[in-house]
Amino acid sequence: MLPYEYFVGLRYTRAKRRNHFISFISMTSMAGIALGVAALIVVLSVMNGFQKELRARILGVASHVQIGSFEGALADWPAIARIGQAHPEVVATAPFVNAQGLVSYGQSVQGAIVRGVLPADEDRVADIGRSMKKGTLSALAPGRFGIVLGSELAASLGVRLGDRVTLIAPQGTVTAAGVLPRIRTFTVVGIFEVGMYEYDSGLALIHLDDAQRLFRFGDRVSGVRLKLRDLFDAPRVARELSDGLRVDAYVSDWTRSHANFFRAVQIEKRVMFIILTLIVAVAAFNIVSTLVMAVTDKQADIAILRTLGASPAEVMRVFIVQGALIGAVGTAIGTIGGVLLALNVATVVPFIERSFGVQFLAKDVYYISDLPSQLEWGDVTVIVGVSLVLSLVATLYPSSRAARIDPAAALRHE
Predict the structure, then answer these.
(1) Of 237, 257, 277, which closes a domain?
(2) Which of 62, 108, 133, 139 has the highest local Cβ count within 10 Å?
(3) What is the DSSP letter of 138?
(4) Domain that holds residue 107
(5) pTM of whole model > 0.85?
(6) What is the pLDDT, as a whole number, of residue 364?
(7) C-alpha distances in angstroms, 388 versus 45, 57, 251, 329?
(8) Contact, 72 vs 222, CB < 8 A?
């Protein structure tokens, strides 16, 4: 059976007070804790969603592990691809040629990263084939000079499927008139949209043979891309492959090539956790004001409890229960509200955007134009724990003050 001080503390919380201001402060503290907890859950869920979505979109175009040459081109790339494929964690490999170029159509000219690929191999290491809006990646065939453009790049040029664009390579041809850029006409055979503005607006794909011919690679390639069973094993696999290579090549993984993006998201998540925890802390320490006024209001009751044999520790527990209950109820309300909102961000945010005619994340400014959310129960547990601990800490001073009240002095004024 629970000690009597728990029931007294619960009774004090539910009882109607003569001083309505104490009730107002209690409700304000409870609402502040609920708001802070809900905000923490939603913000951290959105940050988790951003991290997951950013990783998925980047690695849908980039590679888990990449083997390249210090000289800019790999000569014996089939042998290197076989070494990579032999690793138990590697699912697929694909050679590629990477270069910069200018894509021209009519009066429009746009710079782009031109990637030469083997369509069948590329489909196994990247998601571009599954992100085609028009055409197919398999339409790229050697010698036919087809090109696949990102959706934003195609829109800025004003091209559609079947249009012929001019690709200008920076590698020049020496003639009697001087150095002339290499120019080739390509037919648009596909348009993709991976949902990341950087790639949709600046990436063009052509067949590997056409790229080798246009950029004068011969039989060489820029590197070999590897897809792993578990992308989080990339650093370990990269180290193991680097030790096993017997050629002048380097091995890099996605945690190095895109480290800034993921580090920025992680730092922002930690900073937002600290900032929003301060909201919970301010609301929790409003409990101090509530309990100090409650102790003053209940001095006669405390004195009677003491004369009936209650110890200072028991009186202290009465007010700890009262304050802890305020924090627990606020935390529970905030947790329920925060979890429900975090699970429905994809519905709530578009509704707000439509209602007020605003767009929170513009495509040409942010890498991700929608607001993703991924609820992590580990984060929820930490938030609830921090909120309850802050609420409990806030009860210590006023409850200890109640325990030090002299019964005789308190009853003298009644």
Answers:
(1) 257
(2) 139
(3) G
(4) 63-257
(5) no
(6) 56
(7) 20, 37, 47, 10
(8) yes
